[in-house]
Design brief:
heterodimer, A: about 140 residues, alpha/beta, eight-stranded mixed sheet, two-stranded parallel ribbon, 3 helices, 12 strands, about 20% helix, about 35% strand, globular, B: about 425 residues, Aconitase, domain 3, 3 domains, four-stranded parallel sheet, about 40% helix
Chain lengths: ~140, ~425
């Protein structure tokens, strides 16, 4: 079983399908909180819905509205189930906190290369562990 | 994370429930970042008044106190919100009264925002209503710890002013406004302010559009890095560096750059890197310039322009004057709308200086508070827009599903007069 060891920054344990981006994600101008969809035209996940997924991505980019946009997904019921990202920045960390979803960062191996979209993943942010349960 | 006695008192509720909630968020946030402590700040630039569907619902449920608790403190309790503890300003937000009826932007949002302004100004928030607080009365000094949002303001604050801020969000600035604290992490720490990449420009940067193109290139090249710029330029002014930083913060995540001899923390390339070696040295020549121009302009196919947007980040008085001078005695094409966005305080100065009248007589509009990207609204029926701002051309096609062209101010004014985009990359 594929297991990653990192640092949990928002506690909780969940399981769900992974949605993996090898590109950084924008909040403002990058997602539509009403639908939970990536809207940046040139993004590899353009048009994909992240609601209820374990969102695996390198980190945040773009506007300081990042956290506020992901917080809106929580308030509108379109949030991801969990986040797994690599690069710790104020935008992404504050975003994970105000979205209030289990989040693991700084894994020992690059999760964006090794986890595939559709894999069933378990995020144990209490222990700082991400596990791939079923391959897609 | 280490807390001082005063911070522990705040956390434990000695200054009330809202301050305790603010400190609780700062502790969760600081620990997640890996910060060892907080630092004191007396300069907060955040957002509270900007309307959104989620916020409207919270206001309906529990008034502005509820909206502030949830959105600006990440707290679900019903708490009273005290006066801001330290100087705090509202950045850009949605359209105001001056834009009523110009777009499909809902009147209800204009009213919600006006209600928010009344509430928050009673709490001590300065309503600057701009993405460029440094143009209108919030000019931090070198070394000052700030808690600012708005990526283009953050990069200006760190780089041009030499003050220190991370790219904060609505919740962290809300918590800072009630505590006067922010995690001592990232750009607050001196060793994190040294350069990471050396960028040499072989293109002579001589004009506003060139600084924007170069900024868009630099952001793509370094991502979250801290570029140090060398090469050729003529002395940049406020508008040039405002455009450069905004573009670099848009295509990448640049929060701090150094231009030795120009920006205050690096007198020389050696200063900018201290004893470190650059991770990477990157060149910007005519080929890179053309590539970045083409990437920015790959979101346009039709040359029938119906909207010209200037003033992103919000225009300086000098930029407004430059537009007025070009529009004097001319008429904007009947199928085209031209807007310039500026802070309310500079609108007042532009009106007294006669620029607003010249722009209005030509058929253009000088507007405040917001921009089409923030408010997700352009003139009805807009399909193709043009701008002299790399940032706006990056964002608006995604946000509104329209086509966009980037060019010089003269090309944008030409499109406003003729209704046709004829921009092309000038030889360098």
């Amino acid at each position: 079983m594929l297991t990653f060891s990192g640092r949990g920054i928002v506690p909780g344990v969940v399981e769900g399908p992974a949605l993996v981006s090898t590109e950084e994600i924008s909040g403002f101008g990058g997602i539509d909180p009403a639908r939970g969809v990536i809207i940046e035209p040139r993004h590899e996940l353009f048009g994909e819905c992240f609601t209820g997924t374990v969102l695996v991505f390198p980190g945040a980019k773009g506007s300081s509205g990042w956290a506020g946009f992901f917080q809106s997904t929580r308030l509108m019921g379109t949030a991801p189930l969990a986040m797994v990202f690599t690069t710790v920045t104020t935008k992404a960390v504050l975003g994970a906190i105000v979205t209030r979803i289990p989040t693991v960062v700084e894994c020992d191996r690059d999760p964006t290369c090794l986890i595939r979209t559709g894999d069933r993943a378990r995020v144990d942010a209490d222990a700082g562990v991400v596990t791939v349960l079923d391959r897609s | 994370m280490f807390l001082t006695e005063e911070e522990k008192r705040m956390r434990d509720g000695k200054e009330g429930a809202a301050v305790a909630a603010a400190m609780d968020l700062l502790v969760r946030y600081g620990e997640a970042l890996g910060a060892e402590r907080l630092c004191e700040t007396r300069n907060v630039a955040g957002t509270m008044t900007q309307p959104s569907p989620a916020k409207a619902k919270l206001v309906e449920e529990g008034g502005w106190a509820k909206a502030f608790a949830v959105i600006n403190l990440d707290c679900d309790e019903d708490i009273d919100i005290p006066r801001m503890k330290v100087p705090t300003c509202q950045l850009q937000h949605g359209f105001g009264e001056d834009a009523r009826g110009l777009t499909g932007y809902p009147d209800a949002n204009i009213e919600l925002q006006s209600d928010a302004e009344a509430y928050y100004s009673d709490k001590g928030v300065n309503i600057l209503a701009t993405c460029t607080p440094y143009q209108v009365g919030n000019l931090p000094v070198r070394g000052e710890h700030c808690a600012w949002m708005e990526s283009s303001a953050v990069v200006y604050c760190n780089s041009v002013l030499g003050a220190r801020t991370n790219c904060e969000g609505a919740a962290s600035t809300g918590a800072a406004s009630l505590t006067g604290r922010i995690p001592y992490w990232g750009n607050h720490v001196p060793e994190n302010r040294l350069g990471t990449h050396l960028i040499r420009t072989d293109v002579e940067l001589t004009a506003f559009a060139e600084w924007g193109l170069f900024g868009y290139f630099v952001g793509e090249a370094v991502g979250e890095g801290r570029p140090v710029i060398t090469g050729g330029w003529t002395q940049p002014d406020l508008a040039d560096l405002k455009h450069f930083g905004a573009a670099a913060a848009t295509s990448g995540g640049v929060e701090l750059y150094h231009i030795p001899g120009i920006t205050p923390e690096a007198g020389s390339i050696g200063d900018a890197f201290s004893a470190r070696t650059p991770q990477e040295e990157i060149g910007y020549g005519p080929r890179e310039r053309r590539q970045v121009y083409e990437r920015l302009n790959d979101q346009g196919s039709s040359t029938d322009v119906d909207f010209v947007l200037l003033g992103c980040p919000h225009a300086s008085l000098e930029q407004i004057e430059a537009v007025a001078r070009r529009l004097e005695g001319r008429k904007i094409h009947s199928d085209v709308e031209l807007w310039i966005m500026t802070p309310p305080a500079l609108f007042a100065a532009a009106a007294r200086s006669g620029y607003d009248r010249v722009i209005t007589d030509a058929g253009g509009k000088l507007l405040t508070d917001s921009c089409p990207a923030m408010s997700k609204a352009a003139p009805d029926g807009t399909r193709v827009f043009v701008s002299d701002s790399a940032k706006q051309v990056h964002y608006l096609p995604a946000i509104l599903g329209i086509e966009g062209w980037f060019g010089t101010l003269d090309e944008c004014i030409d499109a406003a007069i003729t209704g046709v985009w004829r921009g092309e990359l000038a030889p360098c």
